[in-house]
Amino acid sequence: MVSEKKPEFIVQYTENIVPLIYSKDAKISWKAAYTLSYIADKIPDTISHILPALQSLIEKDHSTIVRDYTIDTIANYAKISVETAEEAYELLKYALDIWGEKHARQVIRGFTHVLDNISDYKAEIKSLVQPYLTANKKIVSTEAKKIVKRME
Prior knowledge:
Blueprint: H1 2-5, H2 7-10, H3 14-17, H4 26-39, H5 44-60, H6 64-77, H7 82-99, H8 104-117, H9 122-129, H10 138-151
Helix pairs in contact: 4-6, 5-6, 5-7, 6-7, 6-8, 7-8, 8-10
């Protein structure tokens, strides 16, 4: 919870937190992913280095919560620069492709950060988000409507 309120206090512990995302204990893994999501924009070199591991978590982790926070980590990494937005964008599209509506809310939020750095992706993001305007989950359709409205 400290990472949510005072992320700058947690950054110094990054090298201790990263290995915890691989824990067999689901609670430890999701707490580590949660923490990384709140400090991701403060540790770009670390996130860049672990992107393949984050992709693997998105693909294979059994915990929806771990996948949610892992996608949030990538989304927050997209805030930093054009380069990080580029890297994050590919993983966000991948997460949307393999999980669809299940993690669409997190992905769409990430697309918002990508657009902050790369407006050239507007048309592509609009087409990726379009199917979620009528998603079964209200939180997903609401997020889709917000980003489409922002792009208009």
